[in-house]
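Thread: Modeling a multi-component assembly for a lab meeting

Hi all, long-time lurker, first post. My supervisor asked me to bring a structural picture of a complex we are working on to next week's group meeting, and I have zero experience with this. I have the sequence lines for every component (403 residues in total). Could someone generate the structure of the whole assembly? Inputs are pasted exactly as I received them:
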Amino acid sequence: MNRVDIARFEFDFDMTWSAFFTDSKLRIYSRYGGRDEHEPESRMSKPSLLQTMREVLAAHREAKGIAAAGDAVPVWHPEPKASLFPSDMPLLRKNHNGCLHCHQVREYSVLQAFHDGRFRREMLFPFPLPESAGVDFDKAHGHRLHNLASGSPAESAGLRNGDVIVQAADVPIRSEFDFRWALHRLPTETRSVPLRVQRVTEDKPTKTSLINLDLPLSEQWRFGDTYWRKSTRSTPVDLGFRGAPLSKSQRRELNLSQEMMAIQVFSIRPRGFSAALGLQKGDIIISLAGQSRDVTTEHFRSDLLRRFAPGDEVRLTILRDGQSLELTGRLPDWFTEETSVP
Amino acid sequence: MPVEASWFRSLPVFFFVALLGYGASTNAQETIPGWHPNLEEARKQAEATGKPLFITFRCVR
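Re: Modeling a multi-component assembly
Sure thing. I ran the full set together rather than chain by chain. Output:
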């Protein structure tokens, strides 16, 4: 990644594979790839890649013939204002030698932002999934809607199963990942995104029409699970403790269900989150703000950051010396001493 | 088509570039001439041939 213009080739750096379709001037027709908490390739398929390729070729032909104008769907993705290379980040330039992994790009971006005083919570939640916007795409196509829930905000907005989203905000959509990039670029306070959808005409199935509508977004649309992201290890948050879920046999001994949260604190640094709530070594965390499910420590941290911002009051239920206790305190401000990534 | 499951399981990062068959059949396997490890060379070839670029990034162990 050392010589890659990461402003132009912006993708989800917690990935194993990603692709771009461009013209010879490197103007981007489409992004393809991305992953989620499941298998690295769980969001991709050969049919959807072929579908994107077909649409890219059509856009390429269109670009050779005309310049997109007026009401047309844009041919290219919006251009970055300037190039940005990993070595433009002083911390990376100072502390990193040799080959640069994708996730390290994101980790240095976060660390640099923190040390420059411009870190924002949403940086921890890149490339939201379509489901966070209340839509689900057919995996065999990429950006055709299916499984639209009756009465859902998306349906109420006018979307139907079978609609193909071809534009979101100012981004032409030719893959699911294009839609994720469009969401990624929106300010977190956005509450609706303008869409253009292609719909098959009811009485003429071979014909389609373009429809404009607004997709409402919930308050939490950006904040998805991040526990699977390798880059989250560089999150500027000081939990102040280390812990691990209890084993099945340990749970049985304590009469705790196998499905509930049971994270035992095995070491404490009396600062950050642990100090704010008064956690002690040996405590077993069994609930985060009323929710209890069997999670790893990484998942716990993801849930914490997803549901709370610095300054928010957090409530934990713990077991200490066999007694159930409620601990409350405020999530501390962002903090890290790290200036490099492993 | 140069898309295999093994592509998706890989970690140092480098990219491959391929020219996507343009104006041909939907069977891309027959129309992709080859992958280029050098973006600038591929970009020049795209310019000369009028074809779009297919640029992939992958992590390898």
